Amino acid sequence: MTRRPGFAVLRLSSLPRLVPAVAFVLAVVTGCSPGGDSSPTLVKVGSHKVTVNDFTSYASDPQVMAPYQGLPDSLAKRTLLDDLLSYELFAEAARRQGLDKDTAYAKVEETVLPRILPDALYDSKISAQVKASDDEAKLFHERQKDEYQLGVIMTSDSMAMHSLLQRLDKGEPFEQVARTGSQDPTTAGQGGRIADWITIGQLPPDVEAAITPLAKGQHTGIVQQRTGSYVFQVFDKRARQDMPPFEEAKEQAKVSLESRKRGALVDKYLMGLKTSHGLVVEGAGWDVVRERFLVLPDSLAALAVIDPAAAGLPPEDLAKPVAKWKGTTYTVRDLLTDIGKADPRERPQLTREDTVKMFVEGHAMNEILVNEAKQQGLDKSPKVKRQVERAKAAFLVNKYLEKNLSQAQLGTPSPAELDSVTAAMVSGMGGTGGRPVPKFSDLPPVIQQQIANDWMQRKRQALLKAEVDRLKAEIKPEVNEEEFARIPWPVPAENA
User: Fold this and answer.
1) Are residues 4 and 126 in the same domain?
2) Helix (H/G/I), strand (E/B), else coil: 237
3) How many CB atoms lie under 10 A from the CB of residue 421?
4) pTM (2 decimals)?
5) What is the mean pLDDT of each run of 10 residues along the chain (496 residues)?
6) Same domain, yes or no: 41 and 91
7) The domain containing residue 153 runs over which residues?
8) Euclidean distance between CA atoms 291 and 311, whole angstroms
């Protein structure tokens, strides 16, 4: 399912790798099977199990399997099983240490449901509509014969965009308008210029329709998107430099076309929900945000998020609305609370009103989606229950590794160990041609850091493997090899 900006997917802490792929598996897929799965048990660890359905679900997910690409089929299948077994061992060991009694563990479900229910809703409403036929893929491929160097101006305020468009229509250079008026943080400083050449297939359909008729030097009118108002300019256009034959590109063309279809349907669905729920991002609270928050220095802005009263924001200001939708008034206090709780990567730039408004709309739409999903009973579906169990298992594994495999246990490398890693690295790169192998201390600092990181990773891998071996001896997991042998491989992709 395509993830939409503003509606974050579940992000769990990456864990030290046991094998090259295990960090991805640990963060995304593992957990005991929820009730109702009648397929045979494949792995049993304590009272918890991984069923055949669990395993094939993991193995049919392209994102899960991506780190295993390049391994022979039989090795990929076995490695995935070993990773799942190792993960279940850590989770069971955490339960035996009472880590499932942690108060945060009880809140995992309420924490993760707002992140997984929107995708469950998208899947139920949209996924079946996005298949692409060979004929559609061929037509889509043929439209990729040209590529463009584009400029973009973006604002969250449609009235402001009309003013910028008037400047363009009067002949002001696109780059100058972009530098002074665009709110796109990536391109505004470069005069709106998008760094790479782009084919039509990389753009949303309505943007494609606006750009295709343009000649070099021309710009579109305003193209309205859910994330704001846009104007595009064609800086240059040329025949595509690396156009492959259709038969070579067919599968990728299908993937790209289905992704575009899915994105367009999601945007249409979200716009419909926004309208039906009467979502408006406005209210008296924005005067408070502008006058009492956006103008603050970074340190005071951060304080306002943590302790609004200490930053001088009185209760009557905190109660003023910044958004409303069906049955809900979203206040300044709600906004500051949610910014404080947000993943740092998802927090808005605190000095820019447009990014704060986008944050508010994203939060509002996520609540609307979650409520829609619950009304349809998706929070009780087997797939969502499985995802919740995965999240609970991930919590336990993280807690177990934090407690039992600390940084202190990893230690620091000795000079001899660093010299040994250096020699191994040089050997792996083909040697020195007869010259002496350099000492670690003689290397540039950036290379020293890479070598120290490599030592740390190897040490972590060794400790993890030793811990898995110890837990196997202690817990004595059961693996049903007959059922494992019956699982066909490779398992067809979920969206195939």
Assistant:
1) yes
2) strand
3) 19
4) 0.68
5) 26 30 39 62 92 88 82 90 92 94 91 90 82 87 88 88 94 96 90 90 85 94 86 93 85 85 86 93 91 70 73 87 95 91 80 84 93 93 86 91 79 84 76 73 85 86 91 96 93 61
6) yes
7) 145-242
8) 13
